[in-house]
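Case study.
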Amino acid sequence: MIFYVFAAIAVVASLLVIAQRNPIYSVLLLIASFGALSGLYVLLDAPFIAVIQIIVYAGAIMVLFLFVVMLLNAPHEDVERDEYTHTHRGAPGDVAPPQLLVATLSMRLGAVLAVALVVELVWALGRGESEFGVAAVSSVSAIGHLLFTDYSFAFEVTSILILVAMVGAVVLARREAS
Amino acid sequence: MRPLLIAQIGLTLFVFIMLLNSAAVMVYVERKVAAFLQQRVGPYRVGWQGVLQPLADIVKLLFKEELRPKAADAFLFALAPIISATCAFAAFSVVPFGAETTLGGLLPEALALQVADVNVAILVVFAIASMSVYGIVLAGWSSNSKYSLLGGLRSSAQMISYELSYGLALASVLVVANSLSLTEIVNRQAGAWFGVIPRWFVFLQPVAFLIYLTAGIAETNRAPFDFPEAEQELVAGYHTEYSSMSFAMFFLAEYVNMVTVSAVATNLFLGGWHGPFLPEYLGWIWFLIKVGAILFFYVWTRWTLPRYRYDQLMAFGWKVLLPVAVINLIVTAAGVLYFEL
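After joint prediction, the assembly is written out as follows.
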């Protein structure tokens, strides 16, 4: 029962993220969706993963998102609709501006993803709850052990990837300064 | 109804009410201590020595008019203080404040003196602390005022910077205690070395303790790190436009956060409810004394040290506190491996 509450919040919030015009609300809805996901992890007997989800995604990454949105003071996204009407008024054969292409493409992509999500959800619910097996992943030491033995290669590769991203960010920031 | 369930519900209400009270007490203590440090008398007209002053403050705030700037984002403007206060109260829910008790035999089973016994309690405290930044940031943004926005931006930068050191200080204690549960960590600190020195982690992890206290001040946005407010530059920072009870909720959140930071410090470094002279079931008295001492330390620093400059604060966080915390964690891990603690 609680599962459906969290699942509904996660899906509705995620859909509203792309339906919002105000970027600040999009960020907040994404946080709500992450919160619901972490609730699902708790239901799966994985409180560690749930808390990490909150700390890393809701607590760290989304703060940066919010920070950037606030700093840039991004305007409400009324642009795409204006462009849409504008090109329709233009002569036939006009090439659509790239913003319009991106906008319509992303809208279609969003719609496809939403449909896929609903289909998958229906499918998952149809299979019954036995599929959501209670894997005992709550133990922190078990996770740590796996991470440094069976999955150590993936772990190290991820570290190098993050290091590369960090160095890249520093290089970009320095070039802009000079 | 099972007696244990009733006791649990009672305990939850008790913790909630005590946290509300602690904020009122802290307002009084803050004003009195500030007055003494500045050779004034402080509040003394309402009740004996002014002890009813917080009550008068609350009544005043209740009857004030709720104002909202015309250009503010109404929904977020109302939501921000709610987020702040909720996060402040939620964080305390995993903090234990006494040994298990049966209330003198009233209950069939022992009741843990904490609202929720989670086995990743420390991480929960950390997660909620990282969420509380949203209250301040949204308050700053939704007010649609430049002072509020600057306060909100500064606070998010500050809290992100100091959260890292805060987390690393927590991590070094975790390594020593070998557990994420606060109850477990407190119980590891029972007893004494050589019968004299209590087995508190502050003696094993003095550096982590100092880092935790410093980062704790930054996390609760208090002087000398009170940049989100910074009266002289930003009027009142993120809550410039707030009045009446929404302003009171920010204040409440600040004091409850202080209490939570102190309580967690007590559990992590000062042995929680363990102490000499008192029997186990009176351990909460030790807990209160220790929390009170740390709270007094916070008030003391606020009225003693001037505010840093903003770039100094960031430089200190990233160039001093973070490297020290990282080295401390590495040394601790090496030490634990070597001595097999």
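Observations recorded in class. The two ends of chain B are 45 Å apart (CA to CA). Chain B has a mean pLDDT of 80. We will return to this complex in the next lecture.
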